[in-house]
């Protein structure tokens, strides 16, 4: 009996880690496969080599799902640098990251870094320090993957099972000790220079006691256009 117990313990000790490792490895393999498929669906190497992205268009902003006001928006990305500008007669917003510092036109208020969301984050697959991981437990029933940046930010991507393209994404951020959550639902994509860019999408920001809803519609999308350094000036 003692020999049998010893043998059983030895088998469990030897093989259970293998089975557990196989399960984790399979999940990681699936997440990586979905990430590579999403990258390919949005342009593959063309997306990887994209130098700049400019989006301009209209937006509807609301502090509740029913009361909205019109706005215009501009988003410009070049490497890690970005400009986000939302113009409206009530509360215009400009946020800039010059590669080192972030400036917000609203004192004491800052949105999450938009270069750690969506297409700019997807573009960083296989870059040094950017890791693809499985989705957290709460999202395991959805088809997708997570990308984690070297500076600790993450974005969870959810993909279309037929096309492999990203249909939604979400993330949480610590902004000055306050947790900010955001989620995006993509309504349509536009192909520009071989890269599929979100054209119409809806975004929700959970800012503690405040929730902001914004619907974006890009009228102009430019890929690899010349972007002057002055665009990312902090003032």
Could you characterize the architecture of this molecule?
The protein is an alpha+beta fold and 235 residues long. Helices cover 21% and strands 44% of the residues. The chain has 3 helices and 12 strands; from the N terminus they run ααβββββαβββββββ. It has helices spanning 2-41, 45-48, 118-122, and strands spanning 52-62, 68-78, 81-87, 93-97, 102-104, 131-133, 144-148, 154-159, 166-175, 178-192, 195-207, 210-223. It has a 12-stranded antiparallel β-sheet. A hairpin with a 2-residue loop joins strand 9 (166-175) and strand 10.
CATH second-level architecture: Clam
Estimate what percentage of residues fall within beta strands: 35-45%
Number of helices: 3
Number of strands: 12
Q: Span from first to last CA?
A: 79 Å
C-alpha Rg, in Å? 21 Å
Please write out the topology.
Elements: H1 2-41, H2 45-48, E1 52-62, E2 68-78, E3 81-87, E4 93-97, E5 102-104, H3 118-122, E6 131-133, E7 144-148, E8 154-159, E9 166-175, E10 178-192, E11 195-207, E12 210-223
Antiparallel strand pairs: 1-2, 1-12, 2-3, 3-4, 4-5, 6-7, 7-8, 8-9, 9-10, 10-11, 11-12
